[in-house]
Amino acid sequence: MARDEHHVVHNPNGGWDVKRNDSQRVSVHTETKADAVKMGRQISHNQGTEFIVHGIDGKIQNSDSHGKDPCPPKDTK
Prior knowledge:
By secondary structure, the chain is α+β, with helices and mostly antiparallel strands. It has one domain (5-62). 19% of the residues lie in helices and 35% in strands. It has one helix and five strands, in the order E-E-E-H-E-E. It has a five-stranded mixed sheet with strand order 3-2-1-4-5, with helices on one face.
């Protein structure tokens, strides 16, 4: 079963898109990456999904879990 994810990706026609992993449609299109990250993080938080930010080359630069983390960190106390 694939996990629910939102991705920030570069749009080849310019700007940045926020897309859900199982969707062909773009959730949000912005002119700047910073705006896409801000809006995408809010969407991901509201929907409890993994949030993944890609660079202009398509490589993953950052990720954040807003849902049920399959590998939660162990408590160090």
